[in-house]
Amino acid sequence: MRKNYNYTRRKLYLPEYGRHIQEMIDSLSQIEDRRERNRQARAVIAVMGNLFPLLRDTADYTHKLWDHLFIMSDFQLDVDSPYPRPSREDLTVTPHRMPYSQSRFAHKHYGKYVEQMLRRLADEKNPRTVARTVDNLARYMRTKSYEYNQEHPNNEVIVKDIRRMSGGSIEIDEAAINNLRSDYKQHFSTRPQKGSQQRMQKRQQKNHGPQHNNRNFQKNNGGRRNAQK
Prior knowledge:
Elements: H1 19-28, H2 34-51, H3 61-72, H4 88-91, H5 112-120, H6 127-149, H7 155-165, H8 174-178, H9 194-228
Helix pairs in contact: 1-2, 2-3
């Protein structure tokens, strides 16, 4: 007996419908009478709909079944469809290649927009606008540096980074940064270091230790006074 395995057969266009539906669609092209071929095609569409009854409530469900019918026939079936027939070109359109920016920036923890804003400030004529923008950027850079390094940055580093990213066109005083107040809130939970955990435990022990001693001392004094009486 000759065995017929699926791996020896041709590949299915839509495997979710099974090989029997594929054979039914292949037999439609062999019907010469157009009216009979259209009737049999509608019968195949009904069988395909019965395989997935839960999807009948979706929009354009019948339209999808007719599209699948033409796809499984390799776009060779000639029947009257109530919907526009799909073409191979419509379903095999290659997407356009999206251009990605290849710009490189040295200070990644600040982000590329900080460097772009600092370079554009070189063309600003209003000194008040420049000073206000640089103050806001310095606050933002301080916050991002803390998020990246998990420690408060030195103001001298912020001054050097602003001068370097602006190409030397913006000069800011370190005393002006010292007077800035960081208004950005930290939206993440920083992991405390081991040393800080040990210091917190020692503080808690010191705070709770004298209280227990005082309680014991009062109880002992009360017992002694009663004993003396």
